[in-house]
Task: structure prediction
Amino acid sequence: MSRGPDAATLLERALLAGAEAAGCPLTLTAAEWTRWASATFTGARHMLTLSGAASPALDHWLVGLSEAEFALRNHLVADLSVTRVTRADGVATIALEALTVEER
Result:
C-alpha cells in the first residue's frame, strides 16, 4: 500500500504550481534532499534549482516566497530561502533551500 508522495515531491509540486499561478512558470532542473532531525522534529533539507523566463512576475513571486504558505500533506515547510538567482539571455536560474518537518 502506497503512502503517497514524499515531502520532496510535494514541495516540488507546490513550488511549480505557485510559480504557474503567479504567471511565471518554472521548470525543476535539479533537486536533492537529505534527512534531518533535531531533538523534537524529523524532516528533510531540500536543495532545488528551478529555471524559467526572467520577468517582473518572477521577481515578484521570488520576493514573497520565503513567507509563502505551502499545503504539504503530513509536512510543514519550516524554512524556505532563495540562495541564488542568476540571469542570462532572458533565463533566470533560481537556487532554493528548504526545510520540511513531519507533522505528528
